[in-house]
Each structure stands twice: as structure tokens, then as C-alpha cells.
Design a protein that fits this description.
The chain is an alpha/beta fold. The protein has one domain: 3-Layer(aba) Sandwich (Rossmann fold), CATH 3.40.50. The protein has eight helices and eight strands; from the N terminus they run βαββαβαβαβαβαβαα. Strand 7, helix 6 and strand 8 form a beta-alpha-beta unit. The chain starts with a strand and ends with a helix.
Length: 205
């Protein structure tokens, strides 16, 4: 199955979620657009090596040196491409990571959401807790629904906040999975905790 990891905003935890899934399920990994020279794929590969998983880390669909919105980096670097034409790897089990949030530009005319819609990709939506995050999460859920994109679940990075969760889950009728903050030292603990919470989703893959 090809699954898109999308975010409510930049730095929502997409790469850490991608790492957990690839390392645990032996899924391959593909980043649609890498904006900035520190590649997210390198972090995913690092955790896959820790887990001794067997997968392929594909080259980025588009690589931009500029750590900015892709439509800006594209202009500064004189790149020529149509974001909707970025091909997906021919992998049956693939984690596809977007850049930024749902409405982050993929080029001058299209967004990450447009790419997801064109390729009919189901998604795990990611977010974090902060003042205003309920609004951002609910708006993102509505945006995905408006494009008829399947939402497999909502993953929130960081320690659980029950007050936030109760409103989001009841208002949007969505299952929330928590992804604890992790590094190389506590990766296996976070992995075990996440897989236990996500067992119903994993069974459906």
C-alpha cells in the first residue's frame, strides 16, 4: 500500500512518523520534495538501520537547496518542473512524505494537497500541540475531506494532552494516535508504544 504522510504545518512530525513506519513495517520511503540540504531521507534511513529493517530509501522527487517554500526555492534555483508530474516510485509498500502542510506550494500553481488528490493517496495526518493547533488540525481534516482523501488516522507528536484530544476526537470523529518524542536512545520504546496504539491501522494495510 502507498501511504502519504501529510502535516497540518511544517515541523509536525512527518519525518519521525515516516521513520517509525518504515522501520517497523519494512516500507520503502519517498520524499516528494526536499527543500534544504539536510535530507529527511537520511533520518529515516538512520532509524531503519537501527531497526535492521529491509527497505529502499528512494531519491527525493525534487531536491531544492533552498530551505523555503518549494515555489520560492524553484524560482531562486531556476528549476523547471510541474509538481503534479513528479512520479511516484513503483513500490507496492511505500511511505510518501510531503513537505510542509497541506497547502504548502509544490510549484507556482499547485499544493501538496493537489498532488495527493491526483495520485489518490490515503493519508496519516500529523500535528503537534500548541495554542491554535486545534484550529489547524480541524481545518486540515476538513481540507482532506473536501478532496475526498481517505484519512487513516491522526498522529499527534509529543506528550498526550487530553483536553486537546477530547475536543478534536469528538468534533471530528477521528482516532488519535500519539507519537512520543524519540531519538536513537529511546527509539525502540517509542516504536513499541506507537505500534500498540496503531495496531488497527496496521492490520488494515
Amino acid at each position: 500500500m502507498q501511504i502519504c504522510i501529510s502535516g497540518c504545518h511544517t515541523d509536525a512530525g512527518k519525518t519521525h512518523l515516516s521513520s517509525i513506519l518504515c522501520a517497523s513495517l519494512n516500507y520503502d520511503y519517498f520524499k516528494i520534495i526536499q527543500a534544504g540540504e539536510v535530507r529527511d531521507a537520511s533520518l529515516v534511513q538512520h532509524y531503519c538501520q537501527i531497526a535492521k529493517s529491509k527497505n529502499t530509501i528512494y531519491a527525493d522527487g525534487i531536491f531544492l537547496k533552498t530551505p523555503a517554500s518549494p515555489h520560492i526555492g524553484k524560482k531562486l534555483e531556476n528549476k523547471t518542473y510541474n509538481g503534479l508530474d513528479i512520479p511516484l516510485p513503483e513500490s507496492k509498500n511505500l511511505i510518501i512524505e510531503t513537505a510542509g502542510g497541506l497547502y504548502t506550494p509544490i510549484d507556482e500553481y499547485h499544493t501538496m494537497l493537489d498532488y495527493m488528490k491526483k495520485n489518490n493517496l490515503p493519508t496519516l495526518l500529523t500535528g503537534r500541540y500548541y495554542l491554535g493547533s486545534i484550529n489547524h488540525i480541524l481545518l486540515s481534516i476538513e481540507a482532506l475531506k473536501s478532496k475526498n482523501i481517505q484519512i487513516m488516522g491522526l498522529v499527534i507528536s509529543g506528550e498526550e494532552n487530553k483536553d486537546f484530544d477530547s475536543f478534536i476526537s469528538s468534533y471530528a470523529d477521528i482516532k488519535i494516535i500519539h507519537l512520543k518524542t524519540f531519538n536513537s536512545n529511546n527509539f525502540h520504546i517509542a516504536q513499541k508504544d506507537f505500534l500498540l496504539q496503531a495496531k488497527d491501522i496496521i492490520k488494515s494495510l
